[in-house]
Amino acid sequence: MSTESADTSGAAPTTTVDHAAPKVFPPPRSAPRPAGRRPDHVQRARRGDAVPLAAADCLAAAVAAGACTSAGAPAAQVLGVLAPAVVLTVLLHARGGLYRPAPLAAASDELPALLARTAAAWGLSAALWAGLSPDDGLRLSALLALVTGHVVLATAGRGGVLVLRRRALRRRPRATLVVGPTATGHRLGRVLHEHPQYGLRPVGVVSTDARAADATPGDRPPLPVLESEEDITRAVVQNVVRQAVLTRTPESDPRTAGVATLLRAHGCTLWIADDEQAVVPAVPHRPGRAPGAHLWGFACRRLDPPPARTVATRAKRVLDLLLVVPALVLASPVLLACAAAVRLADGPGVVFRQERVGRDGRPFTLLKFRTLRPADAYESATLWSVARDRRMSRVGSLLRRSSLDELPQLWNVLRGDMSLVGPRPERPYFVAKFSETYPGYARRHRMPVGITGLAQVHGLRGDTSIEDRARFDNHYIASWTLWQDVRILVRTVTSLVRHGGS
């Protein structure tokens, strides 16, 4: 299960590396997590978008109910259905993103989603009323009239709200950062500057190039190019940045993933825009999002943060906890024996700590039993393989061959840094290097990293192809099931018993 020996082309890669490694932007250690409380100015902006639209929906429902009652429908039935229908409508619209309009949004963009959710809200309310009052249910004709009237009036009301919103944003556009390659960022920034109707005022380009390039002569206005975490944070604070437009998905590039995490921590709303349609199709379309939204031809989608807890992630986490807790208890004698052996053979410093890249580009500290003491921190971060290193003692060699050096990672799983099954984590230096060489490598980070994985049970460990590993990892993520995790764990245990580790 060890990943310290690997290969970029099938043969062992060179251990000679350039000291100027591409930068990976980590999430700020002092900044709040994206799931935490948003900054006050972002909360006010969100309420400024949502409250008028929600009020228009509620008013439309009330007017539709009044009109239906005036047309002869029993007032008691209509009023009994009205309150739960309004509550369900607001909840469904909020869940579907209908209160977070895209730049230059129009009411007609969301009409299909508006109709579906409104009909569901009134239908569920009518069913609830019928269950409580079986002899006094709402007629189908009255229900259809309520849904139709609500949708028509809500569309008109939302249209008025969006028109006023566009006028306000044109007068006072929101400070925006553009994230991507320097040349593309300047091009998109120029578009936003020349078309203020989108309400996005570019104030800087966050470069994801290995080395930021200067703006081309035709790029006006010249925007400052931001590279470091400090520059980005300063720009967000000084300009009260509320929006950021990415030209690549976070999964496609570790630097973009790090910047996205940093901006989300500051409460920015993220959009992804692309003029060649190469990036946006990778972002799944969700109901309630206008499929034709664009920024002057740059296809545009809101980039919501991945849900912190979905049914799938809950199930995967539950499986991890159900297995790792008893595993730690059962393995405690082995852990103590390994620790004692390392201490006696190699001296103090039993546990080896190393920074690795986890889900969404977040760094974490991976734990292992020390099998070799590196010369310095630079060697630890950039030396690819120590499998045949003469400095390794017999105890270290035995731990590596048997994969017992990986046992402390059970604690990483318990903490939530890792999962039992997933793509193996790598060091930031090699993540940046492999992401530039292999297009699909960075996409491995859209799922929690693991102690073992599909690539490992197919023999892709040690000095094997990085391209093959990335392909197996991405296939595992795309076809993930809980049963697949169980099968991989069984195959891993079987492989260790047969071959004595890696």
Automatic annotation (TrEMBL):
Task: Return the Pfam families for the record.
Answer: Bac_transf
Membrane spanning residue stretches? 75-94, 114-132, 138-164, 318-342
Which domain of life does the protein's organism represent?
Answer: Bacteria
Coiled-coil regions, chain positions: none
Question: Recorded GO terms, molecular function?
Answer: phosphotransferase activity, for other substituted phosphate groups
Q: Where is the composition biased (Polar residues)?
A: 1-17
> Is Membrane among the key words of this record?
yes
Protein topology in the membrane: Multi-pass membrane protein
In which compartments does the protein localize? Answer: Membrane
Write down any Gene Ontology CC term. Answer: membrane
Protein family? Belongs to the bacterial sugar transferase family.
Q: What is the protein name stated in its UniProt record?
A: Sugar transferase
Taxon lineage: Bacteria, Bacillati, Actinomycetota, Actinomycetes, Kitasatosporales
